[in-house]
Design brief:
Low-confidence stretches: none
Order of helices and strands: EEEEHHHHHHHHHH
Number of domains: 1
Largest sheet: 4 strands, antiparallel
Helix content: 55-70%
Number of helices: 10
Structural class: alpha+beta
Number of strands: 4
Mean pLDDT: 87
Distance between the termini: 13 Å
Oligomer: single chain
């Protein structure tokens, strides 16, 4: 069985991840392809591999790896790449990013919903959830108009096309990769969409007039919702003919039209480079 491959767009490049390694390939200012590959450390703590728990652990790991990959790719665009950030700096950046997400997707929707209704029940949670989804879509729409983000989304599309080509067991060439779609069921965009929809259901179980309790429960539920969402996404990727699962992931696939763009041949070349490198290392184990 072929190893499961995931990935992420980075600055002028793509990161690809297998169960044992990750690789990054980027287009440097001189038009050369720069790459790096490293082995991933796997935890032996068995509870981290349990369903739902593993989803949240995977999310945290991908956030750290994503930040690390973005920082390395950004450095390659400089004539004298800076030293890599320390784990303390990564942790601070991660906490700052999570704090911004909590402010934008929890605090703001709660405040806006309080202006609309004073209900403490299902109506409140439904309005809160819809506002949260709208904020996410508006946020993506705004940033997708930025030139740098447009390029990033092209590399995102390249990542998906190449992974789709690999999963179809076709030869990894630019010509073959171009024939595939820029969407993928295991994309982080689909994951976030499942989180947003699932949160409406789970938050509806907590009905309290207290704003503080509403806020705290939403924060506390993040690991649980992330874990369940991971299991849904993971299972749907293995059962592509299941109509119910396809219905659940359809909104996420539709939303990927905002987070991906058609890549050019040079960008597909970068994605193929990253995938080929990580596969060459993974097959040795």
């Amino acid at each position: 069985m072929n190893p499961v491959i995931g990935g992420q767009a980075v600055m002028e490049g793509v990161m690809m991840k297998s169960p044992s390694h990750y690789s990054i390939s980027v287009r440097a200012p001189n038009n050369e392809i720069k790459s790096k590959v490293e082995q991933l450390k796997s935890s032996r703590f068995k509870p981290f591999k349990w369903p739902i728990i593993r989803g949240f652990v995977q999310l945290v790991d991908m956030l750290f790896l994503g930040l690390k990959s973005l920082q390395w790719s950004a450095n390659q665009q400089e004539e004298t790449p800076e030293e890599e950030m320390t784990w303390k700096e990564y942790t601070f950046l991660l906490i700052t990013s999570v704090g911004f997400a909590i402010l934008l997707f929890i605090v703001v929707p709660l405040v806006l919903t309080n202006f609309i209704t004073k209900s403490a029940g299902i109506l409140f949670n439904l309005i809160d959830g819809v506002i949260r989804i709208l904020i996410f879509i508006i946020y993506l729409t705004i940033i997708s108009r930025m030139d740098d983000i447009k390029t990033l989304f092209q590399y995102h599309g390249a990542e998906h096309k190449v992974v789709n080509c690999y999963e179809a067991n076709m030869e990894l060439t630019i010509a073959n990769a171009k024939t595939f779609t820029t969407s993928h069921p295991r994309c982080g965009t689909s994951f976030i969409m499942i989180v947003l929809v699932l949160s409406i259901i789970l938050f509806s179980l907590i009905q309290s007039p207290s704003w503080l309790i509403k806020f705290l429960t939403r924060v506390i539920f993040i690991p649980i919702i992330a874990g369940i969402s991971y299991e849904i996404l993971h299972y749907s990727a293995k059962n592509k003919t299941n109509k119910i699962l396809n219905f659940l992931i359809a909104p996420g696939l539709l939303l990927q039209k905002l987070t991906t763009r058609e890549p050019n041949d040079n960008q597909l070349e970068i994605a193929l480079s990253a995938l080929s490198i990580v596969l060459s290392k993974t097959k040795r184990n």
